[in-house]
Write a structure and sequence with these properties.
Blueprint: H1 2-30, H2 33-44, H3 62-78, E1 84-93, E2 105-114, E3 119-129, H4 147-164, E4 171-178, H5 181-184, H6 186-197, E5 201-208, E6 225-229, H7 239-248, H8 255-270, E7 275-279, H9 292-296, E8 301-306, E9 319-321, E10 324-326, H10 335-354, E11 362-365, E12 372-376, E13 382-391, E14 399-404, E15 408-411, E16 419-427, E17 440-442
Parallel strand pairs: 3-4, 3-5, 5-8, 6-7, 11-17
Antiparallel strand pairs: 1-2, 2-4, 6-8, 9-10, 11-12, 12-15, 13-14, 13-16
The structure holds zinc ion.
Zinc ion binds near residues 182, 314 and 315.
Length: about 450
């Protein structure tokens, strides 16, 4: 009788997981390149979306663009029984003291929240940018179509909302169009502060900035590879945390890096045709993006983007010089690729949205012993836990062991000195939290 029960439970567990895995494949299939194309075209047709451009016109400028984005989110919400909370979140930016601000203005983000059924205060965020720029970022009247930078990320975010609004998630998913990116990451800073002030428990930020270009200035044409940028350790860590790291490790194991590894693994699992490329740095050399203001406040956040950029097609006035066509026009955007990167976002939002919270306290021990030992806090809603480990030189969590519903475990014969370790919580549905690097030592 007991055997039958155990077998039934295992079958139920497997059935549950394969059904949810099927949902992940359906999500990939439901992302539409045509809709992304239409939305990029609509955004391009606003002429310029410079943060300081016209806000009154119905057809041109950032005001018209953000009203259209809000109406799209509102329409999506109507089709899912009002499952989205849609609102503007804004902050005032003044010319004084800001060399790249031509005049005082409100920097307005458009936010759509799909509330979680079980953990409404836990948020996973997908962002794109509303704003665009031409050669001179201060010129807010000249055409700046910003088709790839960053109508692609914005359109991907809207499309992810369309697809995922057909499902319910345990944690909340936020779809957001940020503004003021090109002049100083104002919109991201505003929303990060809003999240902090409202005590959001942020699982992670997936910031999409340029997800549609496959022809690089380096001559490479590639519609499979994309980059995941992540900073190594939180920017706001304490001096004590920095000191402890010298002895216990963690130089490449901050929360944003774990989020990057999560996306890497999930992509490899469900979209094996893709080549996710983790880049071990905050962003491109000396350049920035809207995940950074979240990182500044200690939230996990990464930048997702194409692998091969084309600099003649970003931040450029539309013109022809010496036979080279400059400008971020829609002709250069590959919609099939933007669809794939949107799907990468969607499956990671879904997996994180369906996963239980990660343990907060993870202790590790086993100094001068033959086995590594672990202890962590019990997570309400987790069915079990997985211990991950890897060689110290490996970028990915290559080894794992599911240990069931316990809160301590000893990995026999695995010496603590030779690997890095982490713990993830696993839900009844099979979805996993990001891996947590140990933050306590047992002596
Ligand atoms: Zn840009």
């Amino acid at each position: 009788m007991k055997k039958v029960l155990v077998l039934t439970l295992i079958l139920f567990y497997n059935f549950n997981f394969s059904q949810n895995q099927q949902d992940i494949y359906n999500i990939i299939d439901n992302v539409s390149a045509e809709r992304i194309q239409q939305d990029i075209q609509t955004l391009v047709d606003f002429g310029t979306r410079n943060t300081f451009s016209d806000t009154i016109s119905e057809t041109r400028g950032i005001g018209a663009a953000r009203r259209w984005i809000k109406s799209e989110f509102d329409n999506i919400s109507k089709n899912c029984d009002n499952c989205l909370e849609v609102f503007y979140q804004k902050d005032f930016v003044s010319k004084e003291g800001n060399s790249r601000v031509p005049h005082d203005a409100w920097v307005v983000n458009v936010v759509a929240i799909q509330k979680g059924t079980k953990y409404p205060n836990r948020y996973v965020i997908m962002s794109g940018d509303i704003d665009s720029r031409a050669s001179n970022t201060m010129n807010f009247t000249i055409d700046a179509p910003g088709a790839n930078d960053n109508a692609s990320g914005m359109a991907g975010t809207i499309e992810a909302a369309r697809v995922l609004s057909k499902y319910e998630f345990e944690s909340s998913i936020v779809y957001v169009g940020l503004s003021g990116e090109e002049q100083g990451l104002f919109g991201g800073a505003g929303l990060a502060k809003y999240a902090k002030d409202n005590n959001w428990d942020i699982i992670g930020v997936l910031n999409n900035d340029m997800i549609g270009n496959i022809k690089g200035v380096d001559g490479v044409i590639d519609n499979r590879t994309f980059r995941i940028f992540s900073e190594p350790v939180p920017a706001n860590e304490t001096e004590r945390q920095r000191t402890l790291r010298r002895f216990y490790g963690g130089e490449v194991d901050g929360i944003s890096r774990q989020l990057a590894r999560y996306i890497y693994k999930n992509t490899k699992t469900y979209m094996p045709e893709m080549n996710p490329m983790m880049v071990y740095r905050l962003d491109r050399f000396g350049r920035g993006g809207h995940h950074r203001p979240f990182n500044d406040l200690g939230f996990a956040g990464v930048r997702i983007m194409e692998a091969h950029e084309n600099y003649t097609q970003q931040h450029q006035d539309i013109r022809e010089e010496n036979g080279i066509k400059y400008g971020d026009v829609i002709e250069h955007v590959n919609f099939g690729y933007a669809k794939k990167l949107t799907a990468v976002n969607a499956i990671n939002l879904a997996s994180l949205g369906w996963a239980p919270p990660a343990p907060k306290e993870v202790a590790i021990g086993g100094v001068v012993e033959p086995s590594a030992k672990f202890k962590w806090d019990k997570i309400e809603g987790a069915n079990g836990y997985k211990i991950y480990w890897r060689d110290t030189t490996s970028p990915t969590w290559d080894n794992s062991r599911y240990v069931g519903d316990v809160t301590e475990f000893t990995l026999d014969g695995i010496v603590i000195d030779n690997y890095f370790f982490g713990i993830a919580a696993v839900g009844e549905n099979g979805f996993e939290s990001p891996v947590v690097f140990p933050n306590k030592v047992m002596r």
